[in-house]
Amino acid sequence: MNTIRKILLLGLAGLVAGLSGCAMSRGLAEGTMAMLMETPSMELVLDRLNTAGTAAKIAHVAFNNAAISADATWPAELEDFSKDRMTPVVRALALDGAYAAHGGIVSPIKVHVVMTQDVLYTLPPDMYSSEGTCYRPGEETILNGIYYKVNSPFDIVRKDTPTMKEIQSAVADGAKSIFTNAPCNDVNQVIKRNGKLRPQAGTHVYRNIMTAIQKILPNGKAIRDAYKDYDSAKRDMISKSAEIAEANADVLRFEKNEKPLFFKTKADAEEAVKVRKADLAQLELNVDEKEAILDATLDTISDHKGEVTDPRELKTLQNVVQACEAVENLLIDAGFLATIAVAKLPQSVQNLPNEIKALGSPRGLQNVYLPLRLARLRFNIGNSVDNIQLIIDAVRKDASVVMKINSEISKLIDLEIAPSPEAEPAS
User: Fold this and answer.
1) Whole-number Å distance between alpha carbons of 334 and 12
2) Domain positions in the chain
3) pTM
4) Cβ neighbours of residue 274 under 8 Å, at least 6 residues apart?
5) Closest CA to 69 of 202, 198, 196
6) What residues have CB less than 8 Å from 195, skipping those under 6 apart?
7) 257-290 pLDDT, tens per residue?
């Protein structure tokens, strides 16, 4: 765990210089709240790790799946959330089980993650369900603190202030869904839990940020090819990391005399860890090489001064810059949350007996939310290793790439749309 903490802190330290004021203030507020105002809690440690993993996933969606154009409003919406829009989310999360149980103090970073989902999705993905599972027609559920009822794939009801009866029904449905993770069998009768992105109106809509870069910039194809090579290498690295985690998990199972999942003997599992770590080292070198090629390709953007003149294309690039800033903030949020979670872990482990005792005698809303809290705990424990690895990879790699894209396109926009200096008066 000390190694994980060092990696997270080093990855985060490398990004601090590029932090926006909002990301920095959220991180400082979260850290102050965790260190000074919270009783150590494994429930909150695990929830922070899960929220951090969600932030990293949403950042990936915003960069790779969200359509963008000159008319797209979501990049600007993600830059600043109004008080009126935030208030119901804060209230909902304050009533949510984990937060109500710990004084109702709401994580500022979790509020930001949920608000980002609110902008990007008509129906957001559930932070506490596996991909490939589904909502059923008529299902009521508490999604990230907010009440939703799914009547059909095209009829979704959201209430910011549900009744107590609706909350109890939604908690029961939500807890059952997390425990069963119902698969998608009939695509006409269900909605996948990976969420439903908002459609983007307007003309000249690009499928995602990288497609806009490819189509608009003179060297866009070279950038896209370099990015695809980098992204493929990174995915191979993440996959190998997951294989190492599987082998390590079986080593622990053998040591605890539990049934292994992947290997017949402890020696086989230990050998697999050794071999896979050697493979990972090579894959990491490959990622570094591909990232260096992408970095060099991005450096050539400003060489094309004067070649992007269409006003709509320039406005689209401005939206790309804003969108990249939003992705950066989500990745930095993930790093802050994970670092705080790991820092709080030793105290939380020590306090675990008291926390379990408190779970057995909940009061008021805590009692209503108890089934959902237990279901989330089960889900978060099972996904904690994957979330840590996802966060490490995202903070170390994706954030620096997105920052570079943002920086280089910003330079090009400044060159293209900066007002010409006034002619000096004749002497």
Assistant:
1) 10
2) 2-65+89-116+211-219+300-417
3) 0.83
4) none
5) 202
6) 117, 121, 123, 124, 125
7) 888 889 999 999 999 999 999 999 999 999 999 9
